[in-house]
Amino acid sequence: MNQNEILVTGGSGMVGHALKRVIPEAIFVSSKDYDLRSHFEAEIMFATHAPKYVIHLAAKVGGIKANMEKLGDFYRDNALINTNVLESARRFRVRKVVSLLSTCIYPNEVVYPLTEDQIHNGPPHQSNYAYAYAKRMLDIQSRAYREQYGCNFVTAVPNNLFGENDNYDLNDSHVIPAIMHKMYLAKQNGQRVVLWGDGSPLREFTYSLDLANILLFLMEHYDKPEPINIGNTGEYAILDIAQLIASRLDYNGEIVWDTTKPAGQLRKPSDNSRLHSLGWRPEMYTDFKDSLSSACDWFVENYGTARGTENANTQ
Fold it and tell me: CA-to-CA distance for 15 and 215, rounded, in angstroms?
């Protein structure tokens, strides 16, 4: 498998940037190149680049606030993107597609740790159910195409991701970049930081560069129809994450937890034993504190050009 035979959708996102560090000669496309909500543009993309392998990252994503406010947008856009990418991959006889899902697809009522066989056992959490169902349908379409057409379509379930080149928009970002941005502004303005919930929920976090390496590992080593959990399974309280970020950004102001706002599920521990059975080992993950420090440093160095910071007010 040559790098120039691999097409990466969502190539301008955080994981796409991480993959560029690992497979720089691959083909990276973004929404600026093709609107994958359009079947026609998806067909043009595959006709133009003729990839043999696809890593499918493209998605409409956001934090809890965006997911709750834009339910229809999140479902429609993701359902269209996924349907068009897989259908075009089938039509153009792509050898293998690895698609990225999310732990939010798991049911709200579930037995921990999260194992892949539980994904469709009940409705997902109310806070992001539209996005979650769209991602579940990516799993269903991949399996259906495998069974009917013989397509080698694989799906992978990461936990919470972070790293350089994240989305830092204050209204549309995930927890780590949102906290980074709020603390950066609060430090500049001499203000307190207000964060949602009470800080008690526990989350697993995986560094984007680690995920990039895992996706390539799956391209070589995983060909089964069932989704596979990927990522680091160490749990950290949001409260502790906030303290680590405050320390790295040298923010010494007050952190206020707004308990009138939703905090999300208390915990979502996942079981990645299937990944480890393939040969991936825990020591292959980057140390969490080191990677978080690198992500914070990158954010500060690129403030003003990083996604979501271009028009932020620091005055």
Answer: 10
Contact between 31 and 9 (Cβ < 8 Å): no
Number of residues that this document lists for the chain: 315
Tokens 């959708």 locate to 9
% pLDDT > 70, the chain: 97
- The CA distances from residue 206 to 157, 209, 213, 220, 223, in Å, are 12, 9, 11, 20, 23
SS3 (DSSP) at 54: strand
Long-range contacts of 301-310 (CB under 8 A, 24+ apart): 303/184, 306/165, 306/166, 306/168, 307/165, 307/166, 307/167, 307/168, 307/169, 308/167, 308/168, 308/169, 308/170, 308/172, 308/173, 308/177, 308/181, 309/168, 309/181
pTM of the model: 0.92
Question: DSSP assignment of 101-151, as one string?
Answer: --GGGSBSS-PSSB-GGGTTSS-B-GGGHHHHHHHHHHHHHHHHHHHHH--
For residue 67, the model assigns a pLDDT of: 67
Give 190's Cβ-side CA count (13 Å radius): 1
By three-state DSSP, how is residue 19 classified? helix
Q: List residues with catalytic annotation.
A: 131
Tell me the C-alpha distance between 103 and 265, whole Å: 11
Average model confidence (pLDDT) across the chain: 94
Instruction: Quote the CA–CA distance of 132 and 128 in Å, as a whole number.
Output: 6
- pLDDT per residue as tens digits for the range 215-240: 999 999 999 999 999 989 989 999 99
Q: Using one digit for the tens of pLDDT, what is the confidence trace for 81-124? A: 999 999 999 999 999 999 999 988 999 888 999 999 999 999 99
pLDDT tens readout for residues 206-220: 999 999 999 999 999
**Cβ neighbours around 312 below 10 Å, total:** 16
Please write the tens of the pLDDT for every residue from 8-32: 999 999 999 999 999 999 999 999 9
In three-state secondary structure terms, 153 is strand
